[in-house]
Amino acid sequence: MSAPGPRNAITDVDGVLVGHHHRIGDGWATGTTVVLARDGAVGGVDARGGAPGTRETDLLAPENMVQRAHAVCLSGGSAYGLAAADGVMRWLSEQDTGFPVGVEPHEVVPIVPGAVIFDLPQSDWGNRPDAGFGYAACDAASSDVAQGCVGAGAGAKVGSLKGGLGTASVTFGEHTVGALAVVNAHGDAVDVSTGRPWAADHELAGEFGVTWPDRPGELSPDTGASLNTTIGVVATDAALSKAECRRLAMSAQDGLARAVRPAHTMFDGDTVFALATGATELPEASGPFGVPQRAAVLDALCAAAATSFARAVVHGVLAATSVGSLQAYGDVWPEARPAP
Predict the structure, then answer these.
(1) Which residue did the predictor score with more confidence, 224 or 57?
(2) Cis? peptide before 288, omega within 30° of 0
């Protein structure tokens, strides 16, 4: 594993774009993030929490017909927020992008899996993402990925701290792996007795840019509802099958378990999607002792997925800002705030 990609973001994988839309203030703290792969990407998913809120996950099973997804929609709003994916479908259909079901270019069905976080108490009742959020997030999609209280991370909470959205990437050889995490976990991403993130040791090339504190945080009492579910996407430029994509998503969940304690609880809906654009082929020949080279490279991709997802969680926590009564990491441990 060499170093972060040039943006240190999931968009270091060519063909992947990210867009956010959110509302914060006036009774709102929620939003939607879309990971676009308009040319299509082979997809996989791993749902490991006890309370998932998802859409189109069965479609990604290796035994099922459709091979490629065109976007992943991540949203606040609990089950209500699944409606944001309708706007993503509408946007893609206007671009004639989707699974062909007729002879005309516009006769397509966009494939848009998705997952949601539970952030309802952060907004006035009834204020939650709808199809307009998904459409606007697609309109905003670019290779530059804002982090923190943006998109689906607008109303996120992690333990007793404000959560957020983070991203990271790694390059090795001819391959790139990127991750995007919406950090909204029942557990903590930080050792509150020291202020050090659990995944602080996953830093590459000084990317976190802070000297970690070594003191307990003065945290406000957690009087709100338990807000939970970390969701995200891991992407690669490798040419993978749906079964291999699932292995990639499973490994990203390992990264989540390194970064959040406890993870995958009955109160979380932890779900990670994987996308493989197929720009770089994996070797098929056997290596020393008859070990398939393809399996060895896949193993390295999976290791990169775990590390990248853990780093994305740290980025989301560091970039978050306080919203309402939820304190951000930088307010509890200001001495560790990264330089702007």
Answers:
(1) 57
(2) no
